[in-house]
Amino acid sequence: MYMPFTRAPAFDSAYETTPFVSFLISTTMFSSFFSAQDPTAPNFRPVASNVEPTELLGELEQRDTEWACAGGINTETQIFYTLADDGTSFWCQVIHSSVGLWYPQIQFTCKVFNPKTGEHIWKSVNVSNFVTPPPGLDKRSSKSDQFSITYKAASPDSDFPESYTINANLGQDLQIALVTSRPAAAHGFKLGKGPQGGYSYFGPDKEKPEGYVVHRFWPRYQASGHVIVNGAAREISGPGMFVHAIQGMRPDVVAQAWNFAHFQSNALGGVSAIQMEFTTQPSHGRNGAGSGGVVVNVGSILLGGQLASVTAETRWPDDKAAEGSVVSRAQHLNPEKDPDTSYGKPSEILYTWKAPSIVADAPGEVSGELKVDLGSVQAPKGLIEKVDVLGEIPYVAKMAVNYVAGTKPFIYQWVNPATLTVTGPDALAPGLSAGVPIEGTLYNEATFIS
């Protein structure tokens, strides 16, 4: 995620975007002008501010996953990440980008990667006649000439109370027919309760922010359907996660780096662990410009098919305090300079989670740890690709983006077998108090922007 996560007009749709690239390209050529303020006043309020450890879970309301389609500089996306039972990594997304006075740009993108065969399919198309809500539906659904995504609610006592049906015709070479269904106990969430839950705000005035970032999650769904490639149907069946995200400002102003982790396993009746993390630019922190580099992380652990904990952590660059009662972080280990990108590619990443259980009859602490081996620059493990964002857009646009933003973004994407070790109340799973290793699959991204 992510996030890390379309193009400005006149950008050729043949060029690749990813969930993050889509955010970056569409808005990075524009800037905002803000009124003068106390230069030492806090100008960033992370999502976990003033949220107690027992109040991290924010239940999703209908409006949380409705399309906002806001004007100004806004990029909004729905992303469906699936880790199929046969090892295939599949994701698809819709991106709605507003960039100043231009008409919104809407894209549908998808990527299929099979680590066993090396098959790598990428598709990104500009869509026409985008509508939300479609006739007879609400704004959780959308459609265009090229796709339809239909939200459906079942009875509250159903095993799968809500779902999305995705149908897309992206050309003669690629079509998608997929249903993603949320299990009843795998509750969707945002960080914090109420209408402001999930939001990080930028700017000195929270009531009139310069910008914001917000994420809403389904930590686990069950996908079933097909991807049809050149007339041949490939089954897609397995668990996944859904995120609805909005960046209400230029992405290069939001963050200098992102981390995203998505782990799924069918063990213990269904396990998932997710994280979305970003690090602010130096311009935004608790003492104004120059106090940035704030690390914001939101995550969750799902055990036995039910959401067990929600995690969130803010790490301020000037605060060296020990870990608190809630931990949510991604740590790059043994970085090695990559001559292809000039960034320090991690050889390993350690993801950690710790928070109170949200399951009423299983009180206690739930913690998790996952370390993934990503190999070296010369001998990578699980690398799908290194996406050179500026290399994927036309030369003129690249010069404009590089000049205005001063960025050189790259995105590393991996998929690997992984082991998540979880500790928690035995009421959640037998033997959990002693720690249980869970085998599964991890899709993760590391994004470097500047």
UniProtKB/TrEMBL annotation:
Q: Which residues form the Svf1-like C-terminal domain?
A: 249-450
Entry-linked Pfam families: Svf1, Svf1_C
Task: Give the chief site where it resides.
Answer: cytoplasm
Q: Which family does it belong to?
A: Belongs to the SVF1 family.
Matching entries from InterPro entries are given as:
Ceramide-binding_SVF1, Svf1-like_C, Svf1-like_N
Q: Where in the cell is it found?
A: Cytoplasm
Note down the stretches annotated as region Disordered. Answer: 319-343
**Which organism does this sequence originate in?**
Hohenbuehelia grisea
Keywords assigned: Cytoplasm
Q: Which residues form the Svf1-like N-terminal domain?
A: 75-247
**By what name is this protein known?**
Survival factor 1
**Which top-level group of life is the source organism from?**
Eukaryota
